[in-house]
Write a structure and sequence with these properties.
alpha/beta, UDP N-Acetylglucosamine Acyltransferase, domain 1, eight-stranded parallel sheet
Length: 186
């Protein structure tokens, strides 16, 4: 469902994106080229002054929640994967080529490029430098916790790339087989 917020802002969705009919996108949301939004995802920019921007070729998987508080934004870079059930709450920014694992939570954080976050991690109130790895279940909410992070491995970089490529194939497949069930706003 695509709908306006109380201020009258409608989502702007590139015509090459695929939005599952069961996803909900509300308000001042911008979705780039070849983005995949899976079943049950919720993307909300409905509070006054809030906005969400999702970069080209990113994927928002099943049951992901993205929400921006009033007068804040969520910015997601290109080729980034938000995997099943994660929560991204603004204010926050996530860079390019990142992977956010199952059930992880990102709030009031800046995550730079090529960061790999495993399942059920919590990242709050910190800045994560480029090419870092956050293990499953980690709580990263202080400068000391950030300093202890290891660098991302070649295997994790390859995994994140495969996930992005898989979801790009899904976008192409869905878009070539079905009539899109939403209104595209140029």
């Amino acid at each position: 469902m695509i709908r306006r917020n109380p201020n009258g802002d409608y989502p702007k969705i590139d015509k090459t994106a695929h939005i599952d009919p069961s996803a909900m996108i509300i308000g001042k949301v911008s979705i780039g080229k070849s983005v995949f939004v899976a079943p049950g995802a919720i993307i909300r920019a409905d509070e006054t002054g809030s906005s969400v921007s999702i970069g080209d070729s990113s994927n928002i998987q099943d049951r992901v929640i993205i929400h921006a508080l009033g007068n804040s934004s969520v910015i997601i870079g290109k080729n980034t994967s938000l995997s099943h059930g994660c929560i991204v709450h603004g204010p926050c920014g996530i860079g390019k080529n990142c992977f956010i694992g199952f059930g992880s939570v990102v709030f009031r954080a800046l995550i730079k490029d090529k960061v790999f976050i495993k399942s059920l991690a919590v990242i709050e109130g910190v800045k994560i430098p480029d090419k870092k790895f956050i293990p499953s279940g980690a709580i990263i909410s202080s400068p000391r916790a950030v300093e202890s992070l290891q660098s991302i491995s070649k295997e994790e970089i390859a995994f994140a790339k495969r996930v992005t490529e898989t979801n790009l194939r899904l976008v192409k497949g869905y878009n070539s087989r079905i009539q899109l069930m939403f209104t595209v706003v140029p």
